[in-house]
Amino acid sequence: MLISGFVALDLEKGVYPPALYPMLKEMDYRIDVDYREAAEKKEAFFEDLFYTLDKRREAILHLLKKEEWDLFFATFTGTDRLHHYFWHELVDSKGPYHSKFLEYYRALDKIIKKIVSSAGKEVNLIIVADHGFTLIEKNSTQYLA
Q1: CA distance 136 to 98
Q2: Reduced to 3 states, what is the DSSP secondary structure of residue 28?
Q3: CA–CA gap between residue 60 and residue 43 (Å, rounded)
Q4: In 14-32, which positions are buried (b, 16+ CB within 10 angstroms) versus exposed (e)?
């Protein structure tokens, strides 16, 4: 079974086998959070971020319990979106979205704990990231070619 990530533009076309699609549609599964206007609509971004995480949790736990599997991958893209648009909020503990940033990680931690308990003690769990994050500092000095 496969549920594509953010490169899929349409959930129906990004699912294999196709019989998996109706279940995901029924649960209102989201491929990705809508981040296009994250800077302008911060509250809407966070609402969508948490909603999308909850739907990812629902799908993962369903598939872990109901399907037969030998190898199971789960990807949480929300952390990438959160970092790209709100990393400065993590760094600034007085920032208006600092607590939301931390709340997201607490929610993700709870999901990982549930995945571990659902998968069973004999399962090996590996957690990886595709890249790190830091603040981007811009230098005002212009370089001429």
Answers
A1: 18
A2: coil
A3: 26
A4: bbeeeebbeebeeeebbbb
Specify the length of the chain in residues. Answer: 145
CA–CA separation, 7 and 145 (whole Å): 36
- Indicate the pTM of the whole model: 0.87
- Is residue 127 pLDDT above 70, yes or no? yes
What is the Cα–Cα distance from 116 to 124, expressed in whole angstroms?
9
Distance of CA 59 to CAs 20, 31, 42, Å?
10, 11, 26
Between 46 and 133, whose confidence is greater? 46
Q: Would you say 68 and 42 are in contact if contact means Cβ atoms under 8 Å apart? A: no
pLDDT of residue 139 exceeding 70, the answer is no
Q: How far is the CA of 132 from the CAs of 64, 84, 129, in angstroms?
A: 28, 11, 7
